[in-house]
Amino acid sequence: xxxxxSTIALSLLAVTLALAGTACGSSSPSAxxxxxxxxxxNMVGNLGSQSFSPNPTAMRVGQTVAWKNADSIxxxxxxxxxxxxxxxxxxxxxxxxxxxxxxxTFTYHCTIHPGMVGTITVQ
Length: 123
Prior knowledge:
18% of the residues lie in helices and 26% in strands. By secondary structure, it is an alpha/beta fold. It has a domain of 84 residues: Cupredoxins -  blue copper proteins (Immunoglobulin-like, Sandwich), CATH 2.60.40. A hairpin with an 8-residue loop joins β1 and β2. The termini are far apart. The chain is globular and about 30 Å long. It has 1 helix and 8 strands. A 4-stranded mixed beta sheet has the order 2-1-4-6, with no helix packed on it. It has a 4-stranded mixed beta sheet with strand order 3-8-7-5, with no helix packed on it.
């Protein structure tokens, strides 16, 4: 009889663990990329100084920044003096975070759409 109880107990434990994994909210493969950056800037379209939101952006030395493409076409980011850049960011995805390790004002643009411009002030 104890063997039967052990089997039942192990079965209940397996079901509990399986349900706990589901309840924790694992993401589906089609879920959009999320960023663990301190600051996220949205790419909203080819709108000059209104192409990125917020713009200008303020942050502290050591914080990270990522760009989320809220537009329907691909964009990228390149700092005007070449200090940082992102690969292309497809619609609905977010770039990898970039650490801003130096204080200053950094202007950037989309190399695909050079009229898209933004500014980050790092204090």
